[in-house]
Amino acid sequence: MEALVCIRSATLADTGIINRIIERSIRIGCAFDHRNDPLLVSDWVSQSSVDFISGRLADPAFYLCLALLEEKPVGVGMAEAGGEISLCYVQPESFRRGVGRALMQSLEGWLRIRGVQRFHLNSSRTAEPFYRHLGYQQASPAFMSGSQTVPLHKSLPSPD
């Protein structure tokens, strides 16, 4: 039987673990995208520094959540009130256990409560099939940002 994924709001006390989850997910889970190029990895990881995370946690326009499996932090997600989903990272050993899906449901739910009808994110090539499985579609051509990035979006159905 698969363990239940619990999602909770992140706190300042979680900053270190959030940073470690993101870094490990990038280094191991996104190796196809950065091809273990040390400069690409360093640049990608630096975009989620402890200072960056702390700043977002203090800003009410952002929602950071932590995914737990058996009470152990294994994933992190972040959304901006304007509809941008800017983080969804899972520890590699927790891939395909429902963690990413639970994070995305929490992020999308937070955005829905704020009246957002269209969600946006930039995906790596590695994560693109996951997001497409969740109903995201390509919004514009892929572009290079160190590695290839695919802009995706998802619109909520109109209430009838």
Account of the 3D structure:
InterPro entries: Acyl_CoA_acyltransferase, Bact_Acetyltransf, GNAT_dom. Keywords: Acyltransferase, Transferase. The strands form 2 sheets. Strands 1-2-3-4 form a 4-stranded antiparallel sheet. The longest helix is centred in the first third of the chain and has 15 residues. Strand 3 and strand 4 form a beta hairpin. With 160 residues, it is α+β, with helices and mostly antiparallel strands. The chain has a single domain, classed as Gcn5-related N-acetyltransferase (GNAT) (Aminopeptidase, 3-Layer(aba) Sandwich), CATH 3.40.630. 36% of the residues lie in helices and 31% in strands. The protein contains 6 helices and 8 strands.
